[in-house]
Design brief:
This protein is about 30% helix and about 20% strand. Helix 6 links the parallel strand 1 and strand 2. The protein is flat.
Length: about 500
């Protein structure tokens, strides 16, 4: 019997050894999807993309064949200062007839002949270009590129992003780029770029230094736009004039504005399908009522204009703005505000009935708060939520979004807010070592060794809002901490201890 058992085990071992590796047993369709996902995520950097392709191709003969023979994996062409024209030619050859995504980045001021050689390689395939992104280059090189592209045909070009451009390129016209649907003109462009009207676009983003020609907006084909981003530097927009209801956007769903004179533009547009409105206010932004024609907008985001460092608190909202905005966008169900502005929204507006600007939002279901101030005061919000709770209003979803605070500060705000709302977290950093995000009843804690650095491990807590000594195993907490201590630094472990104490709600030592 023992001999038969040994023979059976030997046969099983032989069969197992004869099986192909696990990487070769996956269906080819699944391998193609996985590799495509990995390569797309690394496509921003040509060096990283090339390195990843090489590493994945070494896994097995099957993966090598998939990568080498799939044209879509070679369709991202990046022209950078260190790009090799021979390598670019090889990519073009391996991409076969697949649509191309072209990106030109880097500084070529000292060697414009290098970019000219690279352009000579890619220009013969303009019939396959699907997207073109040009960024981070000097004005001289940008002018050279536009001169080379003008009067060429781009029959498949759908997406173009150009930055700091002063003239209207001919190749953006419907004659040369008939398929163009998405256009970004950023970083202090001139409004003269619209001397020729572009195609009927679906998305348009334009950032201008000032309005050279007050009528340039009337040349934009508005009938197909679903997303419009409009940014004007400083306050140079004071000199332009628009007539009431003179701009009709029949399909516009999302509008992003960054301009000092908001009301003139909002008075001029008619957008019956508008759902999302995002506004970045400046220090001298003017507000006046522009009627109830935007009462159907459901999503409102307000950001301060930030100068210099991203972490700076930005410009405060003027005193009259909250009441005007809440009245104009009375149908909002999801509002995103910065913590520096929330106090203004909870000030009493006066009148026979004591109320705040926020009370105009009868349909409000979710409030997202972006932390942009060290002096964080959630007391007005907590008092307002308490009053809603006493009136029997359904609890509001309050989302803490992109907060950077200490565990002690999180404990204070957590205790103030959790009783009268449904509290959610998205990328809440505790002292830079822990990143919290919630998904319903699940709390995801990313533990980092260095501040906002490499992630060491993730911890998942189910029913996190109900976490207590009664339903939490202290043995599990101790074991989890011991296992983390092998990889996580002491500072991260201290913050994790504080977080668990906050959630459990008792002053215990793990």
């Amino acid at each position: 019997m023992a001999i038969k058992t040994r023979r059976s085990k030997k046969k099983i071992s032989i069969l197992v050894e004869k099986q192909p590796p696990l990487t070769c047993r996956l269906p080819i369709e699944l391998v193609t999807m996985i590799l495509g996902f990995l390569l797309i995520r690394s496509s921003e950097c040509s060096h990283r993309l090339s390195k990843l392709r090489q590493n994945l191709a070494r896994v097995s003969q099957q993966w090598w064949g998939v990568i080498l023979n799939n044209p879509s994996y070679w369709s991202n062409i990046k022209l950078e200062l260190c790009s090799d024209w021979y390598w670019v030619m090889m990519q073009l050859k391996r991409s076969c007839q697949h649509p191309l995504d072209i990106a030109i980045k880097g500084r070529y001021e000292d060697n414009q002949s290098e970019i000219s050689e690279l352009l000579d390689v890619i220009i013969p395939d303009t019939k396959r270009w699907r997207s073109l992104h040009v960024d981070g280059i000097s004005q001289d090189v940008l002018s050279l590129i536009i001169r080379r592209f003008d009067y060429l045909a781009f029959p498949c070009l759908e997406d173009v992003r150009l930055y700091d451009i002063h003239d209207n390129p001919c190749f953006l016209s419907p004659t040369h780029s008939p398929a163009l649907r998405h256009l970004v003109l950023g970083q202090r462009c001139s409004s003269e770029v619209f001397t020729r009207p572009p195609n009927p676009l679906i998305t348009l983003s334009i950032a201008v230094r000032w309005i050279d020609d007050p009528s340039f907006l009337s040349r934009i084909r508005t009938q197909s736009l679903t997303t419009l981003t409009f940014i004007i530097d400083f306050a140079h927009d004071r000199h332009w004039t628009l007539k009431w209801d003179s701009l009709y956007f029949p399909l516009l769903q999302r509008l992003v504005m960054d301009a000092a004179d908001l009301c003139m533009f909002m008075d001029a547009i008619v957008a019956p399908e508008l759902e999302h409105f995002e506004y970045t206010h400046q220090s001298d932004s003017t507000f006046s009522t522009f009627g109830p024609k935007f009462s159907h907008v459901r999503y409102l985001t307000l950001n301060p204009r930030v100068w210099g460092l991203v972490c700076s608190p930005g410009e405060p909202l003027c005193v009259s703005a909250p009441h005007i905005l809440c009245q104009a966008f009375s149908g909002v169900c999801h509002a995103t505000l910065c913590t520096r502005d929330i106090c203004a929204f909870f000030k009493e507006t006066g009148g026979p009935v004591v109320q705040t600007s926020m009370d105009s939002w009868d349909s409000l279901e979710r409030l997202s708060l972006i932390c942009n101030s060290d002096d964080l005061d959630t007391d007005p919000l907590s008092e307002w939520l308490t009053q809603r709770w006493k009136l029997g209003v359904p609890p509001l979803h309050v989302q803490l979004l992109d907060w950077y605070i200490s565990a002690d500060e999180f404990s204070s705000h957590y205790n103030d807010l959790r009783g009268h709302c449904i509290l959610e977290c998205t990328r809440v950093w505790l002292s830079g070592y822990l990143c919290l995000s919630t998904d319903g009843s699940l709390l995801h804690v990313e533990v980092h060794n260095n501040k906002c650095g490499a992630r060491v491990v993730s911890v998942f807590l189910d029913n996190w809002e109900e976490l207590s000594l009664g339903n939490t195993s202290l043995g599990w907490l101790r074991n989890a901490r011991l296992s983390l201590s092998e990889t996580a630094c002491e500072e991260a472990l201290v913050e994790l201890d504080k977080l668990l104490l906050v959630l459990v709600g008792h002053n215990i030592l793990l």
